[in-house]
């Protein structure tokens, strides 16, 4: 992390913190030992039409992405951080690739990601199979504005948190696909849930026009009932299982990161 201090006109000290990639220094050192990347560096210095550039950190870039040499140990470190980090939570091949390709470039990236995900024991334990449902779907009205029409459902049976929370209330905006996850207890009254909804949802997004909810446990994960909520819940439960296995069951400390993950990850829809 880089820190820059400056003095304002009023005599106040202003501090600016700028994040830095964890493996940037290692990548820059490894580039010097890669013959192919050294050739690209020479070409970049001799012409301005190349797709390669040299950053202010003296690191070779390809289309503004850091060039990672074919160094097995270094690539495995990058993939392990992307696979097991707190903000990624074993997100799968497609989303992991779309996250990494914004920062890095190396030959065979997608193949390496597919290999590490296929060999991940936690991913194999928690990921659900997806099957096309039988019959015809009955689509609901398409929202015209964000948070006008929402869906909601509950995830229960979670490990007991320090504040005695054992369930999560999932509320999803049908237009933007963004979600709020609210930890609750199973003995909360309807009045308590209404207060939570006003403080966590209405306060930021207003009162919705319609709410779709299916609390019938006989149709869990069934897309014909409330497909959007059920799909988000399935993603959430996959991540919570990963948390239980990766972080020893402390889901309460990381559920807010799951909200961020749902918002920022690549969505094929």
TrEMBL record:
GO terms for molecular function: nucleic acid binding. SUPFAM superfamilies: Ribonuclease H-like (SSF53098). Pfam families: Integrase_H2C2. It comes from the Eukaryota. Gene3D superfamilies: 1.10.340.70, Ribonuclease H-like superfamily/Ribonuclease H (3.30.420.10). Residues 73-128 form the Integrase zinc-binding domain. InterPro entries: Integrase_H2C2 (IPR041588), RNaseH-like_sf (IPR012337), RNaseH_sf (IPR036397). This is Integrase. The lineage of its organism: Eukaryota, Viridiplantae, Streptophyta, Embryophyta, Tracheophyta.
């Amino acid at each position: 992390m880089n820190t820059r201090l400056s003095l304002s006109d009023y005599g106040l000290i202003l501090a600016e913190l700028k994040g830095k990639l964890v493996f940037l220094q290692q990548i820059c050192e490894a580039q010097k030992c890669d013959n192919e990347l050294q050739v690209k560096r020479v070409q970049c210095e001799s012409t301005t039409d190349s797709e390669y550039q040299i950053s202010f950190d003296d690191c070779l870039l390809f289309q503004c992405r850091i060039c990672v040499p074919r160094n097995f140990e270094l690539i495995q470190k990058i993939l392990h951080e992307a696979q097991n980090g707190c903000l990624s939570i074993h997100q799968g091949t497609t989303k992991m690739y779309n996250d990494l390709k914004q920062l890095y470039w190396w030959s065979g990236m997608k193949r390496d990601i597919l290999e590490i995900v296929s060999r991940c024991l936690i991913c194999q334990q928690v990921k659900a199979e997806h099957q096309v449902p039988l019959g015809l779907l009955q689509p609901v009205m398409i929202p015209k504005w964000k948070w006008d029409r929402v869906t909601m459902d509950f995830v229960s049976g979670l490990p007991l948190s320090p504040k005695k929370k054992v369930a999560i209330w999932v509320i999803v905006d049908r237009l933007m696909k963004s979600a709020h996850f609210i930890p609750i207890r199973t003995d909360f009254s309807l009045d308590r849930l209404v207060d939570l909804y006003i403080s966590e949802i209405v306060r930021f997004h207003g009162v919705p026009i319609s709410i779709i909810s299916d609390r019938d446990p006989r149709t869990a994960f069934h897309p014909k009932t409330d497909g959007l909520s059920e799909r988000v819940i399935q993603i959430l439960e996959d991540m919570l299982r990963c948390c239980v296995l990766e972080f020893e069951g402390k889901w309460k400390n990381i559920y807010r990161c799951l909200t961020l993950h749902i918002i920022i990850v690549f969505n094929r829809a």
